[in-house]
C-alpha cells in the first residue's frame, strides 16, 4: 500500500489558466437528500461549490429547496422526482454524485435507476451512501462512467460481500478489480483502491467522527473531479487528502470538526496549495 | 451541597480514541418544536451537534424543516407526528431529548406518550420544558431509562408538588429519590440532584437570562450523555458546568449571551478542556 | 430642544441584577411582516432579541416562519391571522411593536384592530410604519398603553396632519400633547417629543439611509422598553441614541450600514456602556 | 479601446450627502429566479443591497421567498407571477434588473414581456442572462429606458447575431449603436460598449470563474445605477471595475471567489474608495 503525501495536492491544485470561464471547471450534478436527510445533500453540494466546480446543481426533495438556497445560493435546485430533468442534468454533468441522504425506499430506488440509466462513459460518477446500499440490495448493474465508490466498511461489505473483519488489502483489491472502479474505503486510515495502485491515507483525526463528514467528502470528490477532469484519478486522491488535511488543521483548536467547516475552508486551503513550491511542505503553512 | 468545579470538565472531556467513527459517539434524538416554538428544538439540536454527538436527528413540526437545515445541515429531520418513525428514532438513540418547544396541546401529548412508550432501560432520557409540564398535568408515568429532568423552578413545582418558595435541599432531595431520576433544577446557582449527591453550580451570569438558554442546555445534556455514555452521570454535570463557563466567558464582552453562541463555542472550549492538565485551571486559558 | 448625549446610555444600560431570569427582562410581541415585507419584522425581531428582551414572539405571515427561525431561533413564531393567539400575545407582552412590514390591505387592518383592542394601560406600545399610516387613513383611535410612535416625516404628516415643510418644533409639540404619546420623528437629526421635553439626536450618518433601518429601530425600542421597563421613557431615548451610535462606529469602515449589523453589535456595545464610568465618554471606547 | 482604471471608482463613489434618506439612493426592482434558479436572483439582490441602493425588491418564484429572507431580510419579496404587482414595482424603480435565473419557459416569457411593457424612459434597465436569450429567440422589442445588457459571449451572439469568434470591436460597436444601449460584454477582460466609447477592463482573475458571478455583477450594476443615478453611465463602469477589483483582492488568499463574498465586501470596499484622494491609488489600501 502506498502512503499518500501532500505531493498529491501539489500535483492536482495548480494555478487556473488566466483565460478561463465557469465552463472550464466543469459541471457537478448531485442527487440525494430525501425528506429526512436534506442536510446530507446540502453538505455535499457545499463541498462541490467551495472546491471550485464551475456549475453545481442539486437534485433533491422539494422540501430542501429553501434550506439549500439559504445555505448556498451558488447551487441550482432540481426536484429529484422530476425524472426528465434529472436525466438531463445527469447527462450534462462532468461529475455526478449520487447517494448522500438519498434514502432507500421506492422513490430512492426509482431516482437511482434513472440516474444510472443516463450516465455516460466519459463522466465521473461518485456513488455514495444509500446509493451503494441500494445497488447491493437491488443488485443493480454498475452504470457507465469513471465509477468512484465512497463506502464506509459496512457499505463495502454490502457491495463487495467481504465481511468487515475480513476486508484485507488482497480481498479488497480483487473486489475492486472485478468492479473496474475506484473504491474509497472510508475508515481509520482510509484506503483507496484504483486500477494500478492501493493508497493509504496516513492522516486524519477522531474529530472527524461527526455525521455529514462522508457527505462532504463525496461532494469534494465530485468538485475536484469536475474541476480537474483531465487528471480525474489524481483528483480523487487529492480530495481525500485535502479533506483530512483541513480537518487536522481545524482540530488543532476544536474538539470536533463540523463538516461544513471543511468546505468553507477549501478556497483558502487550495490557494496555499497552489502557491506551494516543491521545497516547502504543507506543514510549513500553518 | 457539593460545589461543582472545572474538575468535572477534565474528568469528562478526554481525548477521543484515535480509531473511532461517528457511531462511537452515540445518537441523539430530539423531539420538540411545534408550529410556534421551532426555534427551541433548533437551538437544542445545535447544542447536541456542536457538543460532538455522532448522529443527531430532530423530530419536529414540518414547518421547521427548512429552518433546521438552513441552520444545521448536520442534523437529520423527522416529522414528529409520524408515530412509527418517532418510535424507531426513540428506540435507536443513545440519548433522547424531549420537550424543547413541544407545546402542550393534544398533539404534543400524543407525541410525548409515543416517545415515553419507546424508551428503554439503557438510554439517557432528558425531559425538558413542556414535556415536564405535560407529565405533571396528565399524570404520565415516568418512562424507562436513565431519566434526567431539566426543570426551572415553576416546572419543578408542577412535577414535584413543592412550591417555589419551599424548594429546599431536603424537600428536593426527597422528591428526587421518589422519582429515581437526576434533576437539574435551573435557577440562580443551578442545583443538580442525583442518586448519591446534590451539586451546586457556583458559576453563571445574568447575561444568560435570555429565551432559549434552557433549550440549549437540554441539547448539551443530550449531546454529552450520548458522546460520553460510559460516564453519563458525570456528563450531565459537565454539560451544566460547560454551559455556564462558556456563557461567563462570552459575557466578559457582551451584555447578553445568545444561546446559539454557547453551542458554536463548544468545539473550541472542549478542545481547551481536553488539553488541560491537572496543574492548570480553566481560568488560565482565557 | 435638548440634545441627547451618551449620558442616556449610562443611565439606562446598567449591570443586570445577579439573581435574574428571563422573566426579569420582559416580553416583546412584534406584529408585522406580511407576505411581501417579511424582512421588516425579522429585522425588528432581531433587534429586540439582541437588545436583551427576555422573551420575543413574532406574529407574522406564515410564509415568513422559516426565514425567521433560520435567522433567529431565539424568537417564537405566531401566525398573525390567528386573532385569538395574537390577542393573547398582545396582552401578555411588556412591550408591543406593531407595524414593521404590516402592509395596508384589509388583512393588515384587521390585524391592527385586533392588536389595538388588546393592549393595556401598563404596556409599552410601539406603533411603526404602516400601522401609523393605517391609523391615519382609517381614523383608528389610539390604543391603551404607553404609546410610542416612530414615524418618518411623511408618516408623521399623515398622523398629525402637519405637512412635511411645516413640521416645526411648536407644531409637533402641540400634536404630541394632543396625542399624549411619545413621538420619535425619524429624520436627519431625529427629534423625540415626550410629555416633558423635546430631544434632538445630534449623531447619525448617511450610511444609515438603507431600507430596514427604521424597522430595526422599532425593534430596539421594543427591546429596550421591555428590558428596562422601570425606566421606559429613558429607554426609548437610549434606543434611539444607541441605534445611531453603533451605526456611526460601523460607518467608520463601511460606506453603508446594514440594519442587522446594528442589532448584532448590540450585545458588545451594551457591555461597553455598562462598564462606562462617569469620567469616561463613549468616544474613548473605540 | 480605453482601459478602465480605478479613477472610475473615485469619480462615482463619493461621500453621501449628510442630509439624505433611503429615498435619496433609489429603488431597485430585480425580476428573476424561477423554481430552479432561485440562487441567481438572491445573489443579484444581495449585490444590490450591499452596494447601497435605498430600497430593493425581489420579484421571484414563491419557492424562493424563504431563502431570500433567510439570506437578506433587507430585500422585499414579490411573487413574479403577480403581473399587476410586478408592473407596479417595475414602474416604481430607479433601476430594473431582469433576467438572473429567470429561465426560458412560457412563464419566464410572460414575466419578461410584462416587465418590458412597464419600463419608462428615465429608468435604468439591466437585461441579463435568460432575459437576453428570450429577447433574441422571441425577437422581443427593446423596452424603454437606459438599457444596459450584460451578456456573456454566447448571449451576445444570440442578441447581436455576431458569432463568438467574430466579435471584434468594430462589429460589436456597430451592434451596440444599432441597439442604442450599453453593452457589458462579459469575458476575459470584459468590454463595455457605450454611446461614446469602448472600455476594456484590464483586471480580473480566473478565481471569478464560478457560477453566480454574473448574477452578482448584474445586481451591482442595478445597485450602483440606482444609488448614483445622476451619473448612471459612469456607475455602470464603476460596478464592473469594483466587481473585479474586489475579486482580485479576495483571490490573493483564495483559490476561488464565491459571488456573495464580493457583495458582502462592498460596504468596506466602497468606504475605502470614498476616502481615496487623488494621490493615492487603490493598490495602497490593502
From TrEMBL, chains A, B, C, D:
Its cofactor is Mg(2+). It catalyses: (6S)-NADPHX + ADP = AMP + phosphate + NADPH + H(+); (6S)-NADHX + ADP = AMP + phosphate + NADH + H(+). AMP binds at residues 186-190, 214. The keyword NAD applies. Keywords: ATP-binding, Lyase, NAD, NADP, Nucleotide-binding. Residues 5-273 form the YjeF C-terminal domain. It is an enzyme of class 4 (lyase). PANTHER family: ATP-DEPENDENT (S)-NAD(P)H-HYDRATE DEHYDRATASE (PTHR12592:SF0), ATP-DEPENDENT (S)-NAD(P)H-HYDRATE DEHYDRATASE FAMILY MEMBER (PTHR12592). Homotetramer. This is ADP-dependent (S)-NAD(P)H-hydrate dehydratase. It comes from Limosilactobacillus balticus. The gene is nnrD.
